[in-house]
Amino acid sequence: METPIFCNMWERTAREAPPACESLFGEIACDVAVVGAGVTGLSAALRLREGGADAVVLDAAFPAAGASGRSGGQIQPISGYGLARMLRGLSPDQADRVRAMALTSPDLVFDLIDRHSIDCDAVRTGLLRGIHHERLLPLPGHEPAADAGLEFLDREQTARMVGSGMFHASYFDCRGGGVNPCAYTRGLCRAARSAGVRVFSKSPALELRSDNSSWIVRTPQGTVKARNVVVATNAFSHGLVEALEQTIVTVNSIQIATYPLSGKLAASILPGGQIASDTRRLVYYFRKDAEGRLVVGGRGPASDVGNFGHYGFLVAWMQKNFPFMAPPRIQYYWSGEVAITADGLPHVHEPARGLHIVAGFNGKGMAMGTRLGTSTAERILHDDPARYGFAVRGMRPYPFWRFRKAGVRLAVSAYRVLDKFGR
Ligand SMILES: Cc1cc2nc3c(=O)[nH]c(=O)nc-3n(C[C@H](O)[C@H](O)[C@H](O)COP(=O)(O)OP(=O)(O)OC[C@H]3O[C@@H](n4cnc5c(N)ncnc54)[C@H](O)[C@@H]3O)c2cc1C
């Protein structure tokens, strides 16, 4: 009898090898110091090096140790309502730039995968967002137009694509797809190192200070001197830049994966290999991995996530929606931290000259992090704020940040009720 494991499945199954990076010892100098080796930091470093800048990456643990290496691996554009909110208040020119950046972020990911031969089981089979409550069905004649990139699928079409009648209908977005997120992040790291980026593991940035026109980043055993610094620590933004931590609230997202499914079972769940999620505020997301495991994720408990009991609701979800699997045999359980912002959008900050911060992906940072990391590099290479596309904003604290734990608990309870009634 096999024993289920509490560990990140993507790390276990990635064929891209873990990069062998040393810790930083001594004093070094470069053009740009990047803090954080997830998709945001690594895509920034890669683009900087390609543009001729000398970039150094520091990670407190190792490349892909954060959310990038353990996410659901959905490669999604920000579209629909999220995009509309992102464009609010922008000038027409700015809005065009941001729209293009948001919608083409999956193109950038799949292009990087191709260009650098990243071995990450990339599939561009599209994303399905299932409508979980009939109240959320669009009025007849108001379904999204296919030229907006979204196709409306009715109940039967959706059931065929999912292999279950759990949804009333769905929106299908052919721009997106999926990857093994750990392999993708490691691949970005390999590409950056091959291009000449120096990447250091177990080298937490402890302090950041400016010294004339340079920045000094201090780690336990060394320092990096650079004209520009990119802080790409997302949900782990504690302490390094004053006030950044308070712009974000962190929540847990948890995932489980079955043993590889075979035969009829494998063919009946997501037969076309699409990547799926739903319209709940407390979203469920699910897909198969390259070996045919069914992977399901959802909102985790507020604090402790190291207990198998906390994953019971995901197993129950599998049982309810794919009853022919009963009982599902779970091989892996794991979790990660998601950075939530008050407006639900990623934030770009530049609190001082040469200090660039990108954070707050709200659980949708695999493509957007790659996009904003790359844009940050462009902005530095060309010394042009317009290269962000995004509005650079001040660091405003999340309302009632001190009471965030209670706030998250309250919000989760409220969202559960709203989801139940399709509100
Ligand atoms: C369970 C889960 C599922 C998700 N599913 C999806 C999904 O399917 N699709 C999607 O688009 N998004 C998803 N997300 C969100 C997505 O993973 C993140 O938005 C994205 O990976 C953020 O990338 P990043 O590079 O900004 O941060 P991270 O990948 O978190 O990297 C930050 C890095 O900074 C390092 N660090 C922190 N502090 C310091 C310091 N002081 N010094 C040096 N290094 C430091 C950390 O060790 C870490 O490696 C999910 C997230 C989670 C947790």
Summary, kept brief:
With 423 residues, this protein is an alpha/beta fold. The chain has eleven helices and 19 strands.
What does this structure look like?
The protein is an alpha/beta fold. The chain has a domain at 12-72 and 182-247 and 344-403: FAD/NAD(P)-binding domain. The chain has helices at 9-13, 39-50, 80-87, 92-103, 105-115, 155-162, 181-195, 263-268, 312-321, 365-382, 404-420, and strands at residues 5-6, 26-35, 55-58, 74-75, 127-131, 150-153, 169-173, 177-178, 198-200, 207-211, 214-219, 222-231, 249-258, 275-278, 285-288, 294-299, 330-340, 347-352, 355-359. The strands form three sheets. The chain has a nine-stranded mixed beta sheet with strand order 1-17-13-16-15-14-5-7-6, with helices on one face. Strand 14 (275-278) and strand 15 form a beta hairpin. The radius of gyration is 21 Å and the shape is globular. The termini are far apart. The mean pLDDT is 91. Bound molecules: flavin-adenine dinucleotide (FAD).
> What is the terminal-to-terminal distance?
44 Å
Bound molecules: flavin-adenine dinucleotide
Q: How are helices and strands ordered from N to C?
A: EHEHEEHHHEEHEEHEEEEEHEEEHEEEHH
**Helix percent band:** 25-40%
CATH third-level topology of the domain at 12-72 and 182-247 and 344-403: FAD/NAD(P)-binding domain
In CATH terms, the superfamily of the domain at 12-72 and 182-247 and 344-403 is: FAD/NAD(P)-binding domain
Radius of gyration over all CA atoms, rounded: 21 Å
Major sheet summary line? 9 strands, mixed
Name of the level-1 CATH class of the domain at 12-72 and 182-247 and 344-403: Alpha Beta
Outline the low-pLDDT stretches: none
Oligomer: single chain
Strand content: 15-25%
